[in-house]
From TrEMBL:
Substrate binds at residues 42, 121. The lineage of its organism: Bacteria, Candidatus Uhriibacteriota. Residues 394-466 form the ACT domain. This is Aspartokinase. Its EC number is 2.7.2.4.
Length: 466
């Protein structure tokens, strides 16, 4: 049995939904399907919810959302269309009630927001079985809230794997046709709707894959696989044919959009491979992610960048020789809910550099200023914030034990007059990261890709169907 997950761009319009249906039916193995909402719908639902809470017009956005899903009905025949229409109408009425409730209270708490955004996945998963049946495949919709159990951290819930895997094991025994499961959403043990963070449908797929003991999980998207760099910035970027779980996790963490950062956690421990495929070029081989992958010539497999960041530098005598000072930094930020992307500390203990999301700037500065108020007042510490920075990372398992890689990275950047603000390398030696300004990002990507990527071009696959 395999899991096939299709993203929002794959189901963004009628022709694309029909293509996805053909891909599913063409697959001869026993399968489970996971879908994201149609592209743009989650943002539209949030927009409607914000308008409702503000007491402004939300009906127009609601109508646009429903019209987008209703346009899919045109692809169904006389037998399936009335049933699909009735099912969509029921969900549309439920969505209207949620928006009306938000408007009445003039407030949208996070718990209500999770329920609101769930409709994007619920509507597409309600309709897809009708397309599969029209092609001769028995199918039914499945609400992931009946299978995946989380805590009550609404907006970014944590999966309770013990309860979830027990439910999935029991559910698998009764499977007879093709289930179409809602990505992104889940529920608490008492049935409250939760979400797995934006882009969490990938995570849904691997949670299910782990729970049912799938042979593999396929992530169908709009690119041919994981790339050696962002192809929008580096036209010469190439498809990577294979990655280890660890390499792919580093890529996701440092900004590659092809996978949600948590995707690989459920499957890595069970050594279930993940394959990234292109919905619009289904014949292409894609990228296989598993426990082993060949070391490539040049040892670096990809260059990733993470943007929208801020560098905070804490410097001064408060750190030198004072045990626990660094711990105070992390405790203060953790208490405030600030996520630290990268850390760098000089051996002189005179400074600590932290990289955070720019949206958390005010929270971080306020928390640190309060925590170190005395040190700042005594002139023992300064807090310096530099906005509009990014992290550029070179990634590859082959870097481990290979001398000279760090010097090569920093030399290449220095030779093009790119100023490095901070650096970091983990003990795994799988990645080397540098903080640079956003303005230098494009040049850094170009230079490092040219300098390090030695992966040969993957030959175009022959089109065998569709």
């Amino acid at each position: 049995m395999i899991v096939m997950k299709f993203g929002g761009s794959s189901v963004g319009a009628l022709a694309r939904v029909q293509t996805v249906a053909r891909i599913i039916v063409h697959e001869t193995e026993e399968k489970v399907v996971v879908l994201s909402a149609m592209s743009g719908v989650t943002d539209a639902l949030l927009k409607a919810g914000s308008a409702a809470a503000a007491g402004t017009n939300y009906q127009t956005t609601y109508d646009e959302i429903i019209a987008k899903y209703r346009s899919l009905l045109e692809g169904l025949g006389a037998e399936e269309r009335p049933r699909a229409d009735a099912r969509l109408t029921t969900l549309a009425e439920d969505l209207q009630e949620v928006l009306d409730a938000i408007a009445a209270f003039r407030f949208c708490i996070t718990r209500m927001r999770d329920l609101l955004v769930s409709f994007g996945e619920r509507m597409i998963c309600a309709l897809m079985p009708y397309f599969l049946r029209s092609l001769g495949a028995a199918s039914h919709e499945v609400d992931a809230r009946t299978l995946i159990v989380t805590d009550d951290h609404f907006g970014n819930a944590r999966v309770l794997f013990g309860e979830t895997e027990a439910k999935l094991a029991a559910w698998k025994k009764g499977l007879q046709d093709v289930p179409v499961i809602t990505g992104f959403i889940a529920a608490t043990s008492d049935g409250m709707t939760t979400t797995l963070d934006r882009g969490g449908s990938d995570y849904t797929a691997t949670i299910i894959g782990s729970g049912i003991g799938a042979e593999r999980v396929e992530i169908w998207t709009d690119v041919n696989g994981a790339m050696t760099a962002d192809p929008r910035m580096i036209p010469a970027a190439r498809v990577i044919d294979s990655l280890t779980y660890e390499e792919a996790a580093e890529m996701a963490y440092f900004g590659a959009k092809v996978l949600h950062p948590l995707t690989l956690l459920p499957v890595a421990k069970k050594k279930i491979p993940v394959v990234i495929k292109n919905t619009f070029e289904p014949h292409a081989p894609g990228t296989r992610i598993s426990s082993t992958s060949p070391i490539v010539k040049g040892v670096v497999k990809t260059i990733a960048t993470r943007t929208g960041l801020t560098l905070i530098n804490l410097e001064g005598g408060a750190f030198s020789g004072h045990a626990g000072s660094a711990g105070k930094v992390f405790t203060a930020l953790g208490r405030a809910g600030v996520n630290i992307i990268m850390i760098s500390q000089g051996s002189s203990e005179q400074s600590i550099c932290l990289v955070i999301q720019h949206t958390q700037n005010n929270t971080a500065i306020s928390s640190l200023t309060k925590e170190f108020a005395r040190e700042i007042e005594d002139g023992l510490m300064r807090i310096i914030m530099e906005e509009n920075v990014c992290v550029v990372s070179v990634i590859g398992d082959g870097m481990k034990g290979t001398p000279g890689i760090s010097g090569h990275v920093f030399g290449a950047l220095g030779n093009t007059q790119i100023n490095i603000l901070a650096i970091a390398q983990g003990s795994s030696e799988r990645s080397i990261s540098a903080v640079i300004t956003e303005a230098d990002r494009a040049m850094a990507l170009e230079v490092l890709h040219k300098e390090f990527i030695k992966i040969p071009l993957v030959p175009a696959a022959k089109k065998v169907w569709m």
